[in-house]
TrEMBL record:
Keywords: Glycosyltransferase, Transferase. Belongs to the glycosyltransferase 2 family. SUPFAM superfamilies: Nucleotide-diphospho-sugar transferases. Residues 5-148 form the Glycosyltransferase 2-like domain. Pfam families: Glycos_transf_2. The keyword Repeat does not apply. This is Glycosyltransferase. PANTHER family: POLY-BETA-1,6-N-ACETYL-D-GLUCOSAMINE SYNTHASE (PTHR43630:SF1). It comes from the Bacteria. GO terms for molecular function: glycosyltransferase activity. The lineage of its organism: Bacteria, Pseudomonadati, Bacteroidota, Flavobacteriia, Flavobacteriales. CDD domains: CESA_like.
Amino acid sequence: MKYYIIIPAHNEEACISLTLESVILQTLPPKKVVVVNDHSNDSTPEIVEAFAQSVPYIELLNTTSDKSHMPGSKVINAFNKGLKTLDDNFDFIVKLDADIVLPKHYFQTISKIFTEYPKAGIAGGFAYEQDSQGNWHLNHPMSKTHVRGAFKSYFKTCFEAIGGLKNAMGWDTVDELLAQYHGFQVITDESLQVKHLRPTGTSYNRKARLLQGKAMYTMRYGLLITLIASLKMALKSKRPKVLFDNLQGYFQAISRGETFLVSSEEGEFIRGLRWKNIKSKLTN
């Protein structure tokens, strides 16, 4: 299978070399890798350019954007700029973070998943993070059926069906919900152990949590599902403020009349899917 990788990168000089090295070592190499240097003020572009000089399928795209790090819009803006430089001659496309180290067989296995599962639309492995003693541990706070936004692969027909990636907080949740709405499956493979070099959520702040609440509104969760999801996030992170900030963001979105990310019909499907998942966890 042919595939493209897009890597949004903002001030990633500490990690980008390891990420690109793991891509170069893949047993199934990519057709092209576009690293979108998003307003970096460190040596990220120089490091990527050095790789591009010796590896013909690696390209550097320099772009500018707002300096603030906001989950969702900033990274997807960069991704979409990279997407515009590519043609549509691919079987699957990958959104990869610049602080990820992949096992050598990662994309060969992804290709196998898309080949063996006719309904597979999104595929990926599981994130492992290093503790203070240097040991790697699974850190996958979402359901085992969820693929982390840091390393998501999309089969072409699925990517087109969901309309690409939404330029908003919650993009890596709504993509899977819409994929299922269109009849695709989300497939995870526990053998794909991905090293995540920077701990999850270290750059998230209160503004990001308000956006999380807004995302729940724009995905048409409704108040009760938003409350349950926010409570779960607060308990997992052991930070009660997550609950209150999410709910504040949700109600702010209502008062501002924010535009929904999904249609009314898609929203109805999403709520039904969410309730089904909630009930299954309560009965297990």
